[in-house]
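User: I'm writing a tutorial on reading structure tokens. Could you give me a worked example: one chain, its sequence, then its tokens, then a sentence or two explaining what the tokens reveal?
Assistant: Sure. Here is the example chain.
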Amino acid sequence: MTSRRLRALLLGLVAVAVLYAAACTGGDQHGRDLGGPGSHAPGTGGVGPSYADGLGSASASPPASAGPSGTAAPPPPPGGWWKPAVGMTWQWQLTGTLDKSVQAEVYDVDGANTAASDVAALKSAGRHVICYVNVGAHEDFRADAKNFPESVQGKGLDGWPGEKWLDIRRWDVLEPLLTARFKQCRDKGFDAVEPDNVDGYSNSSGFPLTAADQLTFNRRVADLAHRTGLGVGLKNDVEQAAALAPAFDFAVNEECAHYDECADLKVFTDAGKPVFHVEYEGSTGTFCGKTKPLRFSSMKKKMDLDAWRETC
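And here are its predicted structure tokens:
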């Protein structure tokens, strides 16, 4: 082979090598598009698990619950909250030093005044814990009281100084405030919420509230609790129990035996949902006979709802 032919052959091989290298480099730029729009290159955080092999994967689709940075995650799937069973024993304490030794499967305590450590202690002992939250009345002693504009505050509640009925039609105002309260319950470890004062339409609230307004509000409250990942109970509002039972997971009632209303709450136990019930007057012998056939979780309490209780 002449030197000219050898030179030509070498030049040809060099050219082929250059073209091959360019092709490989171009393929990397257009195939992975490192750092460009639509890149799937993994970062240091937020890499979702691979649904194929269980390992972190840059190309795996993120879980449905993971929202974009800075936005709220979508609500939990239906059924993603605690649902108590009919017949569970319970304790309801809203005042005094919390007594964690009561032999009850469910505790109902004030959400704002109960520490996360107390909730954790109860749950570690096998209890479920319900978070008391006032949703239908303004309380001037709460830490977030100033966030409620005067335009939604109505007449005072008889016998409860510092509390005023709320205009439940103003969901645009109340939803973010109640969302913050429900999230506080969830973040403290509570399993469910007990929304209080959900019967303003049947009281002198200072607003022209109708039964339809109350149904709408109560269903919105139940939906909000579920979207926050919490179970939710219907507090009193016995007159609307049949219409609202499908939206709630249990009921909390005061004195249905005294007012001869317990039969109206049977719709809950018939649906496999408990009724947590208290009476303040009389002996357990006077009302337990009425509520046991209805499968209610009944007990007698003092009106200040301290730790004392007497069960059926």
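What the tokens reveal: The helical segments are 3-32, 116-124, 171-188, 211-227, 241-244, 266-270, 284-291. The chain has a mean pLDDT of 81.
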